[in-house]
Specification:
Elements (H helix, E strand, L loop, with lengths): L2 H10 L5 H5 L6 H14 L2 E4 L2 E3 L3 E6 L1 H7 L3 H19 L1 E2 L5 E6 L8 E6 L5 H4 L9 H4 L36 E7 L2 E4 L4 E5 L6 E2 L10 E4 L4 E5 L6 E3 L2 E3 L1 E4 L4 E4 L2 E9 L1
Parallel strand pairs: 2-4, 3-5, 9-10
Antiparallel strand pairs: 1-2, 3-6, 7-8, 7-17, 9-11, 11-12, 12-15, 13-14, 13-16, 16-17
Helix pairs in contact: 1-5, 3-5
């Protein structure tokens, strides 16, 4: 069962059905949950081969009417959304720098039914963690207390008399450039951070496409050298760079059409 489906089932049992009544507004909890998943994907930062860090502090901005309607339940809704983000991160093998928090805020510039998600990565303090921050994490983003020197000690301006000339360290092997891959749908970027990415209309899909011409599990992008796309037995098939096909190799700028939705595949080194 998908993360979003489990989230919906948990909401149904809260407050004796109160959520079912209050969420008849334009903004649905599952929409917010899906937006939080996309926020994680779009802001995933690869620290090393075994660690990809995603934001852990989320702000969901709502229109004034939607905020007034949902704010009495913000505590419970925030807890459920945080739990959903945690489940999704576990599924995608993402990690966090600190505790997961989801806040609701009112935005006067939004109309009813519209929302906006902002996120950031907040590192837990050493007192909260009971120890040092994970190696390689947080130093560049969160800074270091005390303002001390970070990095190797400076070389002396000149060697003492009689001393041999200082030798410079030999450069080690340079890290191999990594290929970043993503897709763009209606101006929204979705990172490809796993070997496969399923696109479809189902909430179980990795990237959900709200298009009646798209099947529940329509197609799958497979990251590799080169990357490729595979139709998953969809009703309407896929078109890649103008050609109807069931499987195709992807290059930077490849245009994929599913239903009436156009997807652009992108990749770049570094």
């Amino acid at each position: 069962m998908g993360v979003l489906k489990r989230f919906e089932q948990r909401l149904e049992g809260l407050v004796n059905g109160t959520f079912a009544k209050v969420f008849k507004s334009e903004v649905q909890p599952v929409e917010i949950a899906g937006a939080l998943q996309r926020e994680c994907d779009n802001n995933a930062t690869i620290w090393n081969r075994d660690r990809t860090v995603v934001p852990n502090d989320f702000i969901v901005e709502l229109s004034a009417p939607d905020y007034e309607r949902l704010s009495p339940y913000s505590g419970q809704l925030g807890d459920e959304l945080s739990s959903m983000v945690r489940d999704y991160a576990k599924q995608q093998r993402y990690t966090f720098m600190g505790a997961i928090k989801v806040h609701l805020e009112k935005a006067e510039d939004l109309d009813t039914g519209l929302y906006r998600v902002r996120s950031r990565t907040l590192a837990a303090s050493t007192s909260q963690q009971g120890g040092a921050a994970p190696q390689g994490a947080g130093a560049a983003r969160a800074g270091r207390p005390g303002g001390g020197h970070v990095g190797p000690p400076p070389m002396p301006s000149s060697p003492p008399p009689g001393a041999p000339p200082a030798s410079r360290p030999t450069a080690g092997p340079q890290p191999q450039a990594q290929t970043r891959r993503w897709i763009e749908i209606n101006g929204t970027r979705h990172q490809i951070s796993r070997p496969t990415l399923v696109l479809g209309r189902s909430t179980d899909a990795d990237v959900r496409i709200d298009d009646p011409g798209v099947s529940r599990r329509h197609c799958e992008i497979r990251a590799g050298s080169p990357s490729s796309i595979q139709d998953l037995g969809s009703t309407n098939g896929i078109v890649v760079d103008g050609q109807h096909t069931t499987r195709a190799t992807l290059r930077d700028g490849s245009r994929i059409v599913v239903g009436s939705t156009t997807i652009v595949y992108r990749q770049a080194e570094g």
